[in-house]
Structure formats: structure tokens, C-alpha cells
Fold each of these.
Amino acid sequence: MANEVEPGSLDLRYESFRLEVPALEERLLSSLLQRGIEEPLEGVESNETKVLLNGFKRYRCARKLRLATVPYRSLGRDEAAAILGLLKLSNNRTLSLLEQAAFIAELKNVRGLNVAEIAAELARSKSWVTLRLGLMAQMSVPVRQEILKGNLALPLQWMRQVPQSPDGCSEFERVLLGDLELTQKYMQRVMGKSQEQSKLTRRAFHAQCHLLTAGILSRSRAFFDVLRQLHDRNGQE
């Protein structure tokens, strides 16, 4: 349930965790002028303080428009639990990799959760968590500042030059590991959902599924040949 609160009453300690994209905020500002804030800002109640976790673009736009109040929804009183909840919804809320990394570093370095605990809470692998922690560990202060300003040229150049992460992988290798992890995850999901024949009944689904599966099957031999070579080659290292 959302309540109306004064923008000045919100604690912005996590604002630096979220990226600023001026072009998006300009469009959002135009939208708010016409329709107002439709989706509540979200935060956690910490020592009687409303700590904002989600909705910083809407907050900044509200300040520019000098709105007296904004809609706000509490995610509870436990900051760690609220952050975990936000990360669980990150696919829907589109948290970027860097935003995920910042929150995960907060959970580990400030809230005291270890990699295994974070992975279990998010239903993710330990490598998923470690990759994001490694990204934050190597990022210098100037690079972080450029990212927060929305200037991505320098950070992208830096990321291309990073030779190795703390777990011994280069950026290219980390990306491939992430792709393999997603491949394994979605293979399991497709196999599971494909067995639920009673839920797969619409003609539109059958038509599109037939085309997509045909495309996948046409590449399956080449894909598994490459995968087998990758498996064999890494087994020899």
C-alpha cells in the first residue's frame, strides 16, 4: 500500500548505487507533467527513516517539479531483506549489471552476508554473485563517478582493458561464463515447461513455437560441436 510523503523526508543513501541517464529522465519528466507519478517510490524503514531504494529518477523529477508529496511504498524494516527483494525483481525492474553489483557489494561488505548466502537468497549461482563482486572490487573511484554521471565512454574503455578479475577470469571470459550459465538455466526451464502439455494449447503458440524450434534445431549440431570442443579443451587445462 502506498502513502504520500514529502520528498525531503526520504533518505538518499543508495542514490549513488543507481545510474543516472539524463535522456531518460527528460522523457520521464515530460510524462510526469501529463500524468503525475503513477508508480510509487519504494524504500525501507530504518530507524524511523524512510530510506529510498527504488525510484530515484522519479524522485529527482518530483524535486524539479517542486511536488509537495510523492507516492511511497515501504518494503519493510530490514534493509538487507529489502535489497534482496529488489535484486530478485531485477529482471522485471531492469537493474543494470553495475547496479546489481553495487547492491551485492553492500550485502556482503556492510550487511555481512557471504557469497553462498547471497546466492541462495537470490536463487543464483555463486559465480553470478562473484562476478558482480569482482566487478565492483576492480572499479576505481573516477570510473564509478563517470558512471554515476551517465558518462559511459570511460567506464566501457576501462572494462575492455581490465585483464583479470580476482577469480582469475578476464572480462571476455566472465561474459562467456555468464552466457553458459544462462544457457544451462534456460535449457532446464525449456525442458520443464515443454512437459506441461495441458498448458500449451493455443494455435498461436504452436505456430510460433514450431518456427523457433526449427531454427534452434537447425543450429543444434554446430552448437553442440562447439560446446563439446570447449568442454574438451578446458578439461585439458
Amino acid sequence: MEILYRNKRVACHQRSYLRGKATTLPEHRPKSHQKYLQWTPGRILQWAENEVGEHCARAAAFIINDKPHPEQGYRSCLGLIRLAKGYGPGRVEAACRRALALGVCSYRSIRSILENKLDEQPLPDEAAAPAAEPVDHANLRGQSYYHREGS
């Protein structure tokens, strides 16, 4: 396959007959995409674990595994790196923990959690108070008080 610009060949690729298989050469990618090729899933997960924490690593793994090709999740994971630089690792770790607990694990959700300071709130299951024992008190009326005859 030849790519022409003003009747001059600018690129030549062998055609792939595999469905959904890209044959793009790294040097033909936009400059902004070429830098992502330096990252691997292992490198991203290692960064997340070492620099932020376990929940961030789990969130990054979820984002990478949620895509048909791991490379499609790189940009979101690199966004987590930017968030950690801006908000600090502690807040990003808390936001990732919340996102995982609520099943909304994406860059946009984690960013929204941080912007709205929801990472500083307890998780819904942690906020629920334990059930208290029933109180026995002279002013409390039980079932028999409300029982009507004939009903």
C-alpha cells in the first residue's frame, strides 16, 4: 500500500490481511504518540505501585486490561502520573481506592473524584454506622401498644 501526497509517495506499507491488525510504523506515528511507545504495561504498573500505591497500581491495571490493546490505556495511565504530580500521591491513591470500590475506574472518574475532593470522604460502606442494640426504655412503646382490636 502506498501513501501519496501531491502525487509523491511519502510512505509504503505491506498490506495486512489480518482483521483489526495495525501495521503502522513507529516513525509514522504523530510525535505525541511516539513517546507512549517508551512505556510498557509493566513499567506503568511498577511506577504506580512504587510512586503512588497499591490502589493506583490496581486502577492502572484495570484501565490497561479494559482496552482491547494495552496501548489504548497508556494515555489514561499517564494521566494518573500527571494527577499524582498535581494532587500528590496520597490523594491519588485515595481517589483510586474510591474508584475501585465504586466500580468507576477510569482517568476521568479519578480526576473527578479529586476535583470534587471526594477522596477525602469515607467510602459509603465505611460511613455506615454499625447497627445499635435496641434500647429498653420506659417511654418506648412496643408492638402491643399499637395493636388495635378488630384489625
Amino acid sequence: MERIQNDLQEIVDYQQIYRYFIETVNANLQHINDNQGSVFCDFIRKCYGTYAASGIRRHSKIGDESISLMKLLDQLKKSANQFTYQFYLEQYPLKDDKIEWQKITFKHFSKDGKSLSEEIVEKDMQTIKDIAGKVSNFVDENIAHLDKRGIKEDITYKDITDSVDLFNKITCKYIGLITSEGYETLQPYIQGNWKKIFTVPLDIRKHE
């Protein structure tokens, strides 16, 4: 869970930086066009798109030696009848002076309140396939490999955004179950004024 969280957190972090970059570009299109900035902007778009799409593909697959969100869900699904509420209480015991958050958390993953429901986990897995599967297939055909049969289905930046947002939501959901820590989003708060770079001019000639 920790490896999955850290990896997806970085993707979500880069997404927020990319979103601000695009907002800045769109607000300064005339200036960018007047100064031949489209080459650099296209470079940033392609780098982010390739990076994010590869991450989406990484967490959409179930491999023997790999760590991924989909593999974690597959393991939970296969062991659903063993993942009982009693077992959960052994990991996170009740305390007399606390709210019984264990039951509140567990009910989101169980239909009978006694054990993990295979159907609930399967539904999350199917949602990932429906939304992120298209991006994952594109990576297989055009990024990880150049499929000689060509691209069967192209993708958009919206497909990438929707997939990253979905991974963010589902990962936070299962972090709550497995670690007992509550997360609304994986998006971190970046320390310092990281947006300042967009407010000052850059000129390589100053260093020549």
C-alpha cells in the first residue's frame, strides 16, 4: 500500500503542476505565439502525458512481480472471505473511549458487515478497466512498444486526467481500509511559492 500510495501521489502531484502550467499557457497564448513558445509547450505536454499515461498503465495491470493498485484489489478480491470484520478488529482493536470507526470503515467494503464483499472490490476493478483501460492500451501500443498494427484507439488528455483522478479516489478509499488513515486526496501541498517561476522572465543570455 505504501509503494502504491507514494507512486500515485507523485503522479497526482505532477498533475496539479501540469494543470497550473496549462492555465498559465491558455492565459498567455498571444505572448507564447509571438515568442515561438509552442515548441516548448508541446514538449511539456508530451512529457507529462507520457509520464502520467505510463503510471496509469502501471497501476492498471496485474503482474507476477509488479506492485500495482489493480493487483492489490485483485488480492483483496481473492481473499475476501478471509478478510473478516473480526480479523479487522484484531488489526485495529476497539477502544472504549473512541468512536467505532472500524465498523463505519468496514461497511463501505462489506454487504453483510461480516467479511469483505468480492462484488464491491470487483466493481472498483471494473471501473478502473472502463476508465483507465483505454489509456493503458494506448501505452502498450504506442509508448512501451510501437505496435506494427498501429493505434487501435487514440486517447485525449481528458482520458488521462479522468484516469488519474479515479486512481486518486480509489487509492484513498483503500488506504482507509488497510492503514486506518483517512485521506481525501493524494495531492500534496507543495511547500514554498512554486508558482513564482511563472511570474518572472527567463533569459539564458544573462548567463552567457
Amino acid sequence: MPEHELWLTALFNDYLAGLGTAVLTAVHRPVPDPAHPWSNWMVMELFVVFLLMVTVAILRSGLSVEKPGTLQHLFESIWDFVRTTAADVGVHHPEKYEAFFGTLFIFILAMNLIGLIPTLESPTMSPYVAPGLAICTFIYYNVMGVKEMGLGKYLAHFAGPIWWIAWLMIPVEIISHMARLVSLSFRLYGNMLAGEQVTSVFIRLTYIIIPVIFMALHVFVAFLQAYIFMLLAMIYVSFATAHDSVESHSA
């Protein structure tokens, strides 16, 4: 049994161990303990997905043009914020990509904040979740770049604006794109892990005032990291879908 197994993870391991082992085996991931295949980060990520699905179901059932509720106002504000930010970053036709940006922001924010609930923890503290989100973002902006410009023009970005230095620019661009994966992963994972650890330590050492301060700081960091991740995703999409390769590289 894991040393710090959450109660929710314990329930999954007690009642869904077979399913967890089957899924991990199907994706060729080793299962050291078939009786306890579920890790905290897996369960918490699924729990966040479940909570978001319930929230969306409640939101959809109460949608109204004449009398929008508080939840509808909240999500409309988030959507306006996402679209405005994408336009400010320079994403052409941001409405094409706002579903991905908005989902990314809300999902990361929910995962960052779930750790504030006693007996739960943020899955973004895990070294697996942040790289997974980074890989999804990496695949998304490259696919959108190819879809927007065509394979030939998109690959021409890697060669740079001057054809005779393509031999130098291509490896530089490949390294630059790989560095984006590392940057997205470690920024989110490192900041959330540090914030969670600091908050936990001070909650154990003190009673009311100091924990409240650090919990407020944790909320701020949670919002900031979700925003930065979304913002970087927008920047990468704007570069990938820019039709002028010279402007894209100079940016």
C-alpha cells in the first residue's frame, strides 16, 4: 500500500483494482502491486474530471438568455477572458481554438485548487500530470499549424526565413520545440508542488491566521499557473498558425 494513500485512492484500490491493473497493462505500464494499481494523482485527476462533468451538466440544464444564473455568469466571464486573451496574444481567429484554451485553463485550475480540500491533493503535484498536459498542448499546436497552413508551409517554418541557413535553423527549431515541453512541464509541476508543500507545512505548524494567508497564496499560485500554462499554449498556437514565417520567427 502506498505510504500516503488518500482515502479516495484507497476506495479505488479496494473496489476497482482489477480495472486499474487492466488499464495500466493495456498501456504497457508496469504494475508493481496489482492489489493497489491506483495512484493518488490518477484518482484525483479522474475525480476532477467527474466534478467538471457534473458542473457542466448543472450549467447546461440551467442555461438561460433572459435570467442567467451565477454559474452561467461565471463561465461566460471565463470564456470572455479566454477569448480576449487569445486575441491579445495574436491568435488569428481565436474562436477556432478557444474551446481548447478554455478547457485547458479550467481543467488545470480545478486540479490546482482541489488540493485545498482537506484529505485531497492536487494532481498537478505529480510529475506525470504536467508532462501529460504539455504533450497534449505540443500535439495540439502542431496539428493546428499543419491544419491552418498545410504540411509543406508549416515545415518551412523550421527552415527559417533564409533557405541557405536551413541546416542550422532546423535543429535549433527542433530543440526549441522540445524545450517547450520541458518548460510547460516543470513550471506547472514545480510551482504546484512547492505551493502544496509550503501550505501543508504551515497548516501543521499553526492554527488559523497563518494557514489562511498561505491558503490564499496557494489560490493565487493556482490561478497564476493555470493562466501561464494557457497563455503559453496560446503563444505556441499563434506561432504555429502565423502565415508569415518571418514574423513568426522574429517573434
